[in-house]
């Protein structure tokens, strides 16, 4: 699959957004086959072609979510979250408060511009929807995606 990490955010927002990182090896192979050969990883993930690749997956995921859970906008980030950047714990759990604080400007931008359906970021940004998530299998990629359980309290 092309997706490495997906984080959704909706805490204190009018709608849910997603911040996505792409698997470097898979996306670079795809890029070489789709007219982006010779470009670096950051250029590839910032391309309109990468956005067009990911949008159908977001649309497919939205079909199984309640309307209030659906992702209205997304951003493709130029790198994975990491332990070294202080975004993940050693057990690879997201440090929610740290990530949200670090990337609040990107989240604000996505929720303030109602005309943008997808956004490609060159310097970026995840934050996390503060809710308990249940795993769901993403059939078209064989990846695990997540979605909130109905009625779960915010943490």
Summed up, the helix count is: 5
The 3D shape can be described as: globular
Q: What's the helical proportion of residues?
A: 25-40%
Q: Measure the end-to-end span.
A: 30 Å
Q: Which residue ranges are poorly predicted, with pLDDT under 50 across at least 5 consecutive positions?
A: 116-155
Tell me the strand order in the biggest sheet. Answer: 1-2-3-4
Q: What's the alpha carbon Rg, rounded to whole Å?
A: 15 Å
How big a fraction of the residues is strand?
Answer: 15-25%
**H-E order:** EEHHHEHHEEE
Q: The biggest beta sheet, please?
A: 4 strands, mixed
Mean pLDDT: 74
Annotation, overall tally of beta strands: 6
Based on helices, strands and strand pairing, what is the structural class?
Answer: alpha/beta
Structure report:
The N and C termini lie far apart (30 Å). The strands form two sheets. The chain has a four-stranded mixed β-sheet with strand order 1-2-3-4, with helices on both faces. The protein is globular and about 40 Å long. The longest helix has 15 residues, at 48-62. The chain contains five helices and six strands, in the order E-E-H-H-H-E-H-H-E-E-E. The protein has helices at 24-33, 41-45, 48-62, 96-102, 104-112; strands at 3-9, 16-22, 71-76, 118-120, 133-138, 143-148. The model is unreliable at 116-155 (pLDDT under 50).
């Amino acid at each position: 699959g092309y997706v490495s990490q997906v984080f959704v955010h909706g805490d204190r927002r009018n709608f849910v957004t997603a911040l996505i990182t792409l698997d470097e090896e898979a996306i670079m192979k795809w890029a070489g086959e789709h007219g982006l050969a010779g470009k670096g990883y950051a250029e590839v993930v910032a391309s309109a072609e990468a956005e067009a690749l990911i949008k159908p997956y977001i649309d497919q995921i939205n079909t199984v979510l309640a309307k209030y859970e659906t992702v209205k906008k997304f951003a493709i980030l130029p790198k994975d979250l990491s332990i070294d950047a202080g975004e993940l714990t050693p057990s690879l759990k997201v440090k929610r408060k740290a990530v949200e604080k670090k990337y609040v400007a990107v989240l604000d931008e996505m929720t303030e511009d109602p005309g943008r359906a997808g956004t490609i970021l060159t310097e970026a940004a995840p934050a996390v929807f503060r809710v308990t998530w249940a795993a769901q299998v993403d059939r078209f990629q064989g990846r695990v995606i997540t979605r909130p359980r109905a009625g779960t309290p915010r943490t």
